[in-house]
Every structure is written in C-alpha cells, then in structure tokens.
Amino acid sequence: MPYYIGDVIKDSKNLIARTPEKFEEKGVSVELNVCVEGIETDRGKILLADGRRLSYDTLVIGTGAKATLPDIPGTTRDGAFTLKNLRDGINIKEYIKRNRCRRAVIVGAGFIAMEMSEALRNLSLETSVVYRGELPVKNWDPVFSEVVLAELVNNGVSFIAHNSPVAVEKGSDARLCLVTDKGKIETDIIIFALGVRPETKLARETGLETGESGAIQVDSSQRTSREEIFAVGDCCESYHRVSKKWVNIPLGDIANKQGRVAGRNIAGYPMIFPGVVGAQSFKVFGLEVAMTGLDEKTAEKSGYSPAGIIIWGTPVARSMSGGQRLGLKMIADKGSGKLLGAQAVGHSGAVSRINILSACLWSGMGLDEIGYMDLAYSPPFGGAWDVIHTVAQVLEKKL
Amino acid sequence: MPYYIGDVIKDSKNLIARTPEKFEEKGVSVELNVCVEGIETDRGKILLADGRRLSYDTLVIGTGAKATLPDIPGTTRDGAFTLKNLRDGINIKEYIKRNRCRRAVIVGAGFIAMEMSEALRNLSLETSVVYRGELPVKNWDPVFSEVVLAELVNNGVSFIAHNSPVAVEKGSDARLCLVTDKGKIETDIIIFALGVRPETKLARETGLETGESGAIQVDSSQRTSREEIFAVGDCCESYHRVSKKWVNIPLGDIANKQGRVAGRNIAGYPMIFPGVVGAQSFKVFGLEVAMTGLDEKTAEKSGYSPAGIIIWGTPVARSMSGGQRLGLKMIADKGSGKLLGAQAVGHSGAVSRINILSACLWSGMGLDEIGYMDLAYSPPFGGAWDVIHTVAQVLEKKL
C-alpha cells in the first residue's frame, strides 16, 4: 500500500488539506507531522521519529529545499523569518497583524526578496531591502538590475546596498534591530530571503550520491544511485539542455514535472524527464523580470564562447507603445551561432518573449532562424519586426 | 541608379512621407503617383503610364494585395469603402467626421472586420457586422468564434448573420442602405472587409508564373520565374513550413522579412527566406485571438491525419486568475505526434501562447516535448503546469 509522509498535503485546489481523507479514499496511507529519521536500504524500511518502521519496495524522496539562514546571532528571535512554504507565509502574515508591524526588513535581493518587498508594501509596511552587493537580482545583467532597483524605489522600497547582516537584536523603538557591518536598522519584522539549498540530509545519510550542485543525483527517470529510490523536486538535480550539466534549479514547475515522471516510471509506464533550459520569471510591482538559458559566465564554464547584447525595444508596435520599453538581452555562441540564453525586463511583454526563446532553446535553434521566425504579428502585441527578431539579427552580426 | 515607384513612401518613423528627399539623399530616384503599365522583359524596361520608360537590371515587384469588393451594384457610392492602406483609413475617418456619421455597417467577419468594429465603436458609431455565415472569424474553431461573437455583442456591436449583400442604395433616413438577401439596413457608412487578393495583374501580363494560391511564384531567395525579377510581400507566395506548400498569407511581418531577403540577394549577400508557420493574431475590444500552423481541414489537405482538442485553462495561475479563462486548441498529427497548429482566445495570454507554439512549430516539435517543455513559471504569468502543457499532454493521449 502506498504511503504519503509529509507535513502538509496540497489538494487539487491548492489549499492545505490537513485531513488526509482524500488520499486514503484512493488507497494511500497518509502520515502527517512525523519525521523520517532514517532509511534502512538493506531491509527496505524507513524509520520514523516515533520509532515505527514502514516497509517499501519503491521509495520517493521529495525533501525539497531549505531556506538559508546567515550564521549570525539572533536569527531565531521572534519576528525573524525565512520563507520556504505556505506555513511560513501564514506565520508572517499573522505576526504582522498581531504585532501591528509598521516596518519590515528583507535581507537578500533575489527574486523571493523582490516578491516579498511587493507583498509587504501592499500591507503598507515601510520596507527596506538590505543586501551585501550593489544591485538586486544579481543573476540578471546589471543593466536590468538597475531597472529592478528603480521599480523598488518608485514603489517606496528602500534598497540598502553593501550591508551584510551581523546580528539580530532587540530593537529600541521597534521590536527588532538588524545590525549590519555598516550600521543598525530598527524594524518590526525581518525576512531572510537568502535563497535555498537542497535538503539532502536524509539522502546523504542513506548513502545516495549527490552531484556537484549539492543536490541528489538522479537519472532521466528520476532514479537515484539506488535503483529502488527515486528523488524529485528541489532536493534533486535536473539535466540542463543548454549547459549539458546536471543542475539544481528549485522551482515548482520542475518539481511537478519530475513528480509525474517518477510516478509513471514506478507504475510501469516508462517516461524520461527531458530536462530544463533554466526558464524563470518573477513579478515585482508592475515589472516583469525573466530569463532563460545561460548567462555569459555560466556559458563559458560550459565550454561555449558566448557573446551577448541588450537592445531596448517595445512590447507592442512602437506607435501603440506609449513610450513603454522592453529590454531584451540574448547570449549566443560565437562558434555555432546557437542561442544560449536570454533575459528580459519590462512592464509588459518580458515573460512572453522569454517563453518564446525558451522554446527556441529547447529545440537548439540558432540566431539565423530566430531572426526570421514567424510570430503572430499584430500591432497591439508586437511590431512587424519583434524585439526578438532585432536582437537575434544584431547579435548574429556581432558574432 | 535604383528607382522606387509607388504611391506613398513610409519613412523610418512609419509616417507617410510624401516628399521623397530622404530616399534621394541616399541615391534612390523616387517616382510617386505614377502607374507602371507594363514590363518589357526583353528590353529590360518598365513602361510608365505617362509614356516614359525606365531601365532596370533587377526589378522588385511589391504590388501588394487588393481588397475584395462584392460584385453588386452601388459599391462605388460615396460612403462605401474598402480598407487596404493608410489612405483608406484616413478617408474613412474624414468621411465619418465630415458627414457626422452615426451608423456603420461592416460587411464581412474576418479579422479586419473585427478590428474595424472596435475602431468604429470607439468613434461612438452604432456598428453592425453583416455576414453571410453563422459566426465571425471562420478560420478559428467555432467554439472560439462564439467567444469572439460574445465580445462583439458585449461591446455593443450587432452581428447580423446569414445575410449576403445584394446592393448598396441611397438610404431613406440614413445616407446609405445596404440591401441584403434578407432585408435592408440603413447606415451612414459601409466598410467592405471581405479579405484581399494578391495584386498580380502586372506580373501575369509579364508572363511571370503564379502559384495555386493565385500569388506570384517565388523561390526562397524571392526570385520569380524570371531570374532578374523578384517579388515580395502580399503579392507573392511564401513557403509554409508545416503544410510544405507555397501559400499566400498577406501580413506585414512576412512582407518586411521578404523585402529584406530580396534586398540582400540583389546586393550580393545571399540569404533565404525560411518560410512561415501561419502565425497571426488580432485584438477585438478586450479579446486576444491568435492562431498558428494548420487547422484540421488544411492539415488533411496536406496529407496529415490531424486530431485536435480544446481545453480551457487560465492565463495566469488559477489562484490569481479571478475567473479569467484562456481557451487553447492544439492540432497534431496522429502518425508522428508532431504539432500541426494551435488556436487561442482569451482576454490575456492568448497571443503569448500562440507565439510559444509558433516557435515549437518552427522547429517541428512533437507533443511529447511540448508537454514537458520548460517555461518561465511564476504564478502571475502562468501555472506550474501551463495550459500549453495540459493541452499537449491530453492531446497526446488522444492520438
């Protein structure tokens, strides 16, 4: 009989279902709020924290990722949070309400930090993003990071650069104080948004191989280094179709796909997970920010000779754009002319361009093809030459 | 010395430049408002209506398309228009203003008719679309045509189905009267939006080959059946990468690309036009309507065994969609599992899906690949499983 072991269940309506009836109706035994302490591979059993053992023929590990906390004093203080799952989100909201928070600090400047800054501003909190670097969203070209910074500032978020957290202390006129290497910031709540790491403790203790990325190694069927154990989601690696390397990209869509692939293989309907191209996006206030494939640095590490350019176009035909701009960067290989990656920012149209280019990356298209690709032209949706065509043609000339 | 002969010039800002100085600065002689009466291929000359002859080594034909008028009396009456070029648009606007028009009739229900209905409603005219068929935009699945019809009606446009025009007469309480086989419709202005046909008179008289589509035959370098004569734009054919046939799709983006390809070949920088996949879109009021590739009927005529399904998803993650729906149809080949075409309607997200699928068609992807393709997932822009994934997976099972 299949078991599901975890802290929450998501039902088909994406709400937390703390009652496992739906699963049990379908013959799945559910164990909630119980920790797995170990996997006894020689006996085909898992050991639960309450001392019970459950038998398995096939095991799926979906331990996810854990939020990174800085190694500084005070991060366990009431009011200091990370954001990994829905429960964290609920806790943050309840804390803000209960304590009538007025000021918030977010430590980190990745995309979760950006999304949180919007969420907190929407709750009317004075919000500051504290970051050790110069600009937010460092995975994007600095030109685009500047646009993200402007969007933060235009929406009342303070961006405090070049500050590394040193401690979380009790505040004087607020509940907490974030001490950094440059000063002290009084705040009612602190969100540490410093990224996540794959949660692999159980897998490593079981002797499963992990990869260079630190995540659990799997093959294209989602099998780990032990044939009877599968891994899916943020805890495991995915094959990157552009870099040809196994990477860890902790995103929900990838986890969903891998789960289904593992399920099919276990049920005897073989299927491979065809990999990823690194497509991702987020929204911060009115801005769309997206990327796919590799940046120049990663491309070089993968053996390519990358060249890139940024061009500012318009999301719709110029005559209808009302001055709105869309920045698109493409990166291609000097040797083969193949597209390697793309990034985009704009108040509209950025994600749609990145998705088109993800499909191009998926099938390994070259700039020559992309420059003349047939898109659904209509002035409210793009120019006769879309910004995609322009960037591909100009970059091709540059190679 | 190169010549440009035509009625208007579009300069780099897409405005009509009736003064040819910009071209002449660059060494291009410009002849405006003069008709070419014939091409004397044996002497390498064109004959102008004013009796002059101009010599050429290489000739480019870009005669475009002409709007279709029904063969009924009265279509030349003041107030009866077709819409082919910018001049027509200006004339229509001036006529409406000068005559303080209150009522408009559009004959036809293709995408130009849809765009015109929005434009006329925006000028506060009572607007009726008169169509011989049952539903608007017949190239789309009837399910989607129903959505377009609802959008028209919700925006105050009358849709008068099963009415064929018989005559344009003088009106009694309005300026004109459109007589149909079912009745009489009083109106101040009539727009015939019955599609366009390639303008090939000059080419045919010159003995250039035309294709099955009725448009001028060209090769992938845009050369006609005579080596020294090129053709580009709405007057000529394009290679359809899915049907593997030469077709005539009169759209501005295709014309732009072909013009550049011809120019490069003439200038000695060889380049081929890689063809089209039939991507197209239009906006009618708040609705996005788009398609790419083939529908079932055309697919069958091209030798495929098509199957198609429609699924209603959401343009963004369900939890953020506010009930908004996005309809996506995909058509695939039962034999190979390859995508053959797609159609979409929705108040947002339809064009972006069709563009992604255009890139998939461009590279000949199968449903198996599309069902697990990596897209830039984020709830404000789509679900973890995008509607594209869902349709591809469900259709694959159906094949």
Mind telling me which CATH architecture of the largest domain in chain A this is?
3-Layer(bba) Sandwich
**Count of discrete structural domains of chain A:** 3
Tally the beta strands of chain A: 26
CATH topology of the largest domain in chain A: FAD/NAD(P)-binding domain
In terms of DSSP E residues, the strand content of chain A is 25-35%
The coarse silhouette of chain A is: globular
Number of helices of chain A: 10
Q: So what's the oligomer here? A: homodimer
What is the mean pLDDT of chain A? 94
What Rg of chain A is obtained from the alpha carbons, in whole angstroms? 23 Å
Q: What is the largest interface, and how many residues per chain?
A: A-B, 53 and 53 residues
Strand order within the widest beta sheet of chain A: 10-17-11-12-13
> Considering DSSP H and I runs of 4 or more, what fraction of the residues of chain A is helical?
10-25%
Sheet with the most strands of chain A? 5 strands, parallel
**What distance lies between the first and last C-alpha atoms of chain A, to the nearest angstrom?**
58 Å
CATH superfamily of the largest domain in chain A: FAD/NAD(P)-binding domain
Strand-pairing-aware structural class of chain A: alpha/beta
**Low-confidence runs of chain A (pLDDT<50, min 5 residues)?**
11-16
CATH top level class name of the largest domain in chain A: Alpha Beta
Give a quick precis of the structure.
Two copies of one chain form a homodimer. With 399 residues, chain A is an alpha/beta fold. Chain A is built from ten helices and 26 strands.
